[in-house]
Amino acid sequence: MGVRDLVYRLYERRLESRLGNAMIPRHVAVIVDGNRRWARSMGMDDVSRGHRKGADKITELVAWCRDAGVEVVTMWLLSSDNLARPKDELEPLMRIIEDLVQELVEAGWHIKPVGALDLLPDRTAHVLKNAKEATSDRPGLIVNVAVGYGGRREIADAVRSLLQEHASTGASIEDLVEVLDVEHIAEHLYTRGLPDPDLVIRTSGEQRLSGFLLWQSAHSEFYFCEAYWPDFRRVDFLRALRSYAARHRRYGS
Fold first, then answer.
1. Which residue among 122, 129, 201, 234 is buried most deeply as judged by most CB within 10 Å?
2. Does 82 participate in catalysis according to the annotation?
């Protein structure tokens, strides 16, 4: 082990010790950004190598979350806007996502797809649906895999689902207007039944949500990291937890 690695390990342990009695977020959401830029910065013409490296990092993140006591982790792997990317980039990315999901299933995690599966290629949607069914009874950390996800579309889908459910009872729109509140919409979101994210992390230096969990992140804390996703280290994750623990959450009060 070199001097740099030794210093890094010592700093990591120092962060861990300071988090001993700290408040840990129940739900951590991550925008895994910067795979393509990482690949280009490494001189790679094939950006799918960046996506593959990023997928490997996700398996590490899930273990870090478990070890820290996090109950839910949501990872945004592909937005609905990303589906417009060129075919020669999108197809390899779909294969990488499929392989990642299967690896997470084999590793014993509880997987929940989050997104508009009807927008995805049949094969990818099938892998996600199978992962959900095969792991639905597993205890422990819940891993939300956001693929084909867009925050505005999620809200529109939630309202559409709510209207369809209400119409099926024979009630009118006027009846719905009389009783509609935020909880009714929340019950139809992709993440229904789960706590909203306490902490949202975004890598690559970008400081915006880009439509990620628009409804659910109303009271979330945010942590922006300069590193591209494949370079995100455990020490960066611990720093995010330290930052979260130092904040006083007021929830608008």
1. 201
2. yes
